[in-house]
Amino acid sequence: MNQLSIPAYAKINLTLDVLGKRPDGYHEVEMIMQSIELHDQIILKERKEKGIKISCNHPLVPQDEGNLAYRAAELLIKEYGIEKGIEIKIIKNIPVAAGLAGGSTDAAGVLKGLNELWGLGISRDELMKFGARLGADIPFCILGGTAIARGIGTDLTPISPLPEMELVLVKPGIDISTKEIYSKYKPELVKRKPDLRKMQEAIECRDLEGVKRNLVNVLEDITLYYYPQVAETKKIMENLGTYPVLMSGSGPTLFAIIDSKREADEYAMKLKDRVMGQVIRTRTRSECL
Ligand SMILES: C[C@](O)(CO)[C@H](O)COP(=O)(O)OP(=O)(O)OC[C@H]1O[C@@H](n2ccc(N)nc2=O)[C@H](O)[C@@H]1O
Ligand SMILES: Nc1ncnc2c1ncn2[C@@H]1O[C@H](COP(=O)(O)OP(=O)(O)OP(=O)(O)O)[C@@H](O)[C@H]1O
C-alpha cells in the first residue's frame, strides 16, 4: 500500500499591511511571507476502502471534516474522481491558533502529498489555486521560501531568499482567531505602516540590519491593543535582549530575529524562565520547495 511522510513548514510575516476591506468581508493585504524550519509531519497512507480517516496528536485540532487537511483531501478526491481512500496522520509541532499557519500548512502538505502519492500530475500553480479555495495562507504554504503576497494573500510573487536567520518564537498562553483580529482592524489603531519596497530591497541586498529595521505588522497593533498579555510578553522579550520582536500574522506568536545560534540559544533559555507561554527555537528556511 502506498505511503508518504512529508514535513509541513510554518510561516512568519516579515511585513503585513492591510490596504482595505472588500465587499465579501475579506481584507486586501500586502505582506512578505517567510517559511521557517518549525514543521508538522504529515503521514499519508492509502486505504482500499473509500473515505478519509484523520488523526492528530494535539487535543485542540479537529479529528474530522473540521480539519483543513481533511478538506484538502476531500477537494482532490472529488475533483479527480478518486476511488481510493486515505489515512492522514498529523504530528503537530506548530502551536495551534498562533499566527503561524499551522492548519494551512497541513492542508498544503496534503495537497502536495496526494498529488505525488496518486500521481495526479497537478502543476504547482494549479495546486495553489486549489489551496486558495480553502484558505488565504495555503498557496504560500505550497510555494514556501520568501514571497510577497497581495490580494487576500493568495497572489504571490517569490523574491530572493532571505539569508538564514536564527529565530526565537514565543506563543503566549492564549489562542487567537484570525477572523476576530481582522474584524477588529481599525486604521486608527495602527502606529506604523510597513515599507514593502524597503524590506524587499533589504532582503535582496542581504542587508540584515535593514531587514530588522523594517519588520512591521499592522495587525500587531490590533492584537496588542485587545490582548494586553501579548503586549506584556513583547515587552519582556524586548527588555531581555537587543533583538527586534514582531508578531506573526494575526498573532499571538511573537518572534525575535537573532544573528548567531549561540545568542539565540541563550536568549531562548532566559525567556523560558520569564514568559508565560511556549518558547520555540527555530530558524528561517531559505529554499523554495
Ligand atoms: C493573518 C494571515 O495569517 C497572514 O498571513 C492571513 O492573512 C490569514 O490567512 P488564513 O488564516 O489562511 O485566512 P482564512 O482562513 O482564509 O480566513 C479566516 C478569516 O480571516 C479573515 N481574513 C483572512 C484573510 C484576509 N486577507 N482578510 C480577512 O479578512 C476573514 O474574516 C476570514 O473569514
Ligand atoms: N490541521 C490543523 N491544525 C491546526 N488547527 C486546525 C487544523 N485544522 C483545523 N484547525 C482549526 O483551525 C483553527 C486555527 O488554527 P491554526 O493553527 O491554523 O491557526 P493560525 O496558525 O493562527 O492560522 P493562520 O496563521 O493561517 O491565520 C484551530 O483553532 C483549529 O480548530
From TrEMBL:
Keyword terms of this UniProt record: ATP-binding, Isoprene biosynthesis, Kinase, Nucleotide-binding, Transferase
Pathway the protein contributes to: Isoprenoid biosynthesis; isopentenyl diphosphate biosynthesis via DXP pathway; isopentenyl diphosphate from 1-deoxy-D-xylulose 5-phosphate: step 3/6
Record-level Gene Ontology MF annotations: 4-(cytidine 5'-diphospho)-2-C-methyl-D-erythritol kinase activity; ATP binding
Domain GHMP kinase C-terminal: 200-267
All residue ranges annotated as the GHMP kinase N-terminal domain in the record: 67-145
EC primary class: transferase
Active site: K11, D137
Residues reported in the UniProt entry to bind ATP: P95, V96, A97, A98, G99, L100, A101, G102, G103, S104, T105
A GO BP entry: isopentenyl diphosphate biosynthetic process, methylerythritol 4-phosphate pathway
Entry-linked Gene3D superfamilies: 3.30.230.10, GHMP kinase, C-terminal domain (3.30.70.890)
Keyword ATP-binding part of the UniProt annotation: yes
Catalysed conversion reaction: 4-CDP-2-C-methyl-D-erythritol + ATP = 4-CDP-2-C-methyl-D-erythritol 2-phosphate + ADP + H(+)
InterPro entries to which the protein is assigned, alphabetical: GHMP_kinase_C_dom, GHMP_kinase_C_sf, GHMP_kinase_N_dom, IspE, Ribosomal_Su5_D2-typ_SF, Ribsml_uS5_D2-typ_fold_subgr
Enzyme nomenclature, EC number: 2.7.1.148
Family: Belongs to the GHMP kinase family. IspE subfamily.
NCBIfam families linked to this entry: ispE, PRK14608.1
Primary role: Catalyzes the phosphorylation of the position 2 hydroxy group of 4-diphosphocytidyl-2C-methyl-D-erythritol.
Protein name as catalogued: 4-diphosphocytidyl-2-C-methyl-D-erythritol kinase
Species assigned in the record: Anoxybacter fermentans
Taxonomic lineage: Bacteria, Bacillati, Bacillota, Clostridia, Halanaerobiales
Gene field: ispE
